[in-house]
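Holo model, magnesium ion. Inputs:
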Amino acid sequence: MKPLQEVPVTELQGVGPALAEKLNRLGLFSLQDLLFHLPLRYEDRTQISALGQLRVGSTAVVEGEVISCEVSQGRRRSLLARIRDGSGLLSLRFFHFSASMKSQLQPGKRVRCYGEARPGATGLEIYHPEFRVLRDDQPPPALEQLLTPVYPVTEGLQQKRLRQLITAALQQMQEQPLDELLPQHLLQASQFAFLADWSLAAAIHYLHHPPADADLMTLSEGLHPAQRRLALEELLAQQLGMLALRQKVREEAAHPLRVESSTLEIRLLEQLPFQLTGAQRRVVSEVSQDLGLAHPMLRLVQGDVGSGKTLVAALACLKALASHCQAAIMAPTELLAEQHYQNLKTWLEPLGIRVEWLTGKLKGKLREALLKDLASGAIQLLVGTHALFQEEVAFAKLALVVIDEQHRFGVHQRLALRDKGKSGDYLPHQLVMTATPIPRTLAMSAYADLDVSVIDELPPGRQPVKTLVLPDSRRPEVIARVRSACEEGRQAYWVCTLIEESEVLECQAAEVTWQELQVALPDLNIALVHGRMKPAEKADVMAAFKAGSYQLLVATTVIEVGVDVPNASLMIIDNAERLGLAQLHQLRGRVGRGSTASYCTLIYHPPLSQQGRERLQAMRSTNDGFAIAQKDLEIRGPGELLGTRQTGEVQLRLASLKRDAHLLEGLKPLAIQLQRESPEQAKLLLKRWRGNSLHFAQV
Ligand code: ADP
Ligand code: MG
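Output:
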């Protein structure tokens, strides 16, 4: 007998090409697919409810005697039948009806119906109930023994038909059980021992046909042990996929770098006016350990805005340079690339290191010369945007690539970038830095191919930013506050947010605000920076702001990431309700970098949506990026949080990263153990859940 995953749906009785095509549309090709096609919800048709017990919203089977049946000429013509059962009354209302229906529902007849009670003109009513007229000469039809599953269907495929097919697949499963791929003893020994009693087959059977007394509440929340048993298996398969990917990475070669601190590092640290924080020290050492290995590092450094990631990156680069290799730092925008370049140059040039910036501005001979020095190894550290990985750019011996602020990069893009840095048989080490903390549980899944380090400490002396939330009617107060702050020698940002997803409109809004503020604050020097200015213009404005030539900077969200002006201590965000939490937190992180008390004012335009209110409330209540990320996960769910590019990689069939987060914790060790003890089973498990469609199943 063929295993169920190889038996096509067409082998079920009555499934021809047309029906098969509809099933395929739902992703159902094999009998196993049918088994894994789980109900969205359940209906309880196992008992008859008394009419007197019905409440608005109850969905129930009821029985009663028809007392009247009339066509009602209300706003919409309908057929209205009233029934009673001794405990109460109910109306059945049909907006679409035939003459035969009216004659079926004659007074005196008994009917059994199913539907949802709602408030109507005559009291409780069910619109378009399912019904059947009971016959005096026959016993009433039996009630269902089990809860009735309601499946996701597609056009032209009836619930009833799909139920029959799945029931048939369940019967096949009795004769030919699915392989149990999760070894009992492993489950027993893990923190998932509470699920060990559930075999895969039992869980699947239960979820398609739950008994009448099943806990519908738990089932609807997705927290029934049968559901958790399946979610566990799916998430385990995902972890196995990531392990396989890591395994593959380990087989590649990289230049092992010197682990001990070099004189370069020591000199850099001596020259800084501050000490590394404990967290920076720990992360640097985690990175160093990886760099000492002969296979490429893939490490994510998460650190809240202002936690000092740039310095960690610089120290990692010095490891490469001390081992006579090159390093590259990639930033998402020219503005940020330039800022990194300036910082790194200040830090590293005194050590005799040649740092260069590969910008779009660089053309002709100058560019040629730069590329030549890069290829010869004369340039040790190169900073830039994506332009770093154009074809003509060749390094002499690139050992480390740092990617900054790219939390939206997916596994694919990360690996593609790394491959571009390949020279000979050697891949560069990769350090990814993100300021948008991703909740741990989510990171374990989405970034399971990466090792993660966390800088969970800010440099000492930072003042927490105080956040105010105000309606736009109080703008004049905000403007007054900007005036007095700037008069005291501080600097401020005024951010105009995205209008209807249009960059053009956003820039226009920024221009308008800039003009208004110039009128309102004639004594201040006010600059404008927006996404449609040339990179060079933007950089000039930013440099002038940083140098203190302007007191107020009106900007679009282009300043979101990385801009570092310690003297700026006031951040105003217009229409803050339009932005997501991560973005708001990023923007707020632009202030609070110096030692003066900083403020962030979120101006909103009422009325606020529920989500908008929750976001602004979260911003007011905490400065902790991780707490904010967790809140963001709760409000938006993981797909949104990771950005569209990445959602494909965490697409799950049954499990939910939000709901099943508590399962993730212990999964990695379980996956490692399974992989080690039973690699064949691990492979089958991966195949069962991931098919062949996803990249990590193929490695
Ligand atoms: P982010 O993690 O947001 O990229 P940066 O690397 O831009 O943060 O650092 C923010 C600021 O903190 C910079 O001005 C940097 O020089 C400074 N900084 C970094 N590490 C320390 C430290 N250990 N003590 C004091 N200041 C630090
Ligand atoms: Mg940064």
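The domain at 51-143 is CATH 2.40.50.140 (OB fold (Dihydrolipoamide Acetyltransferase, E2P)). The two ends are 29 Å apart (CA to CA).
Archived with the compound record.
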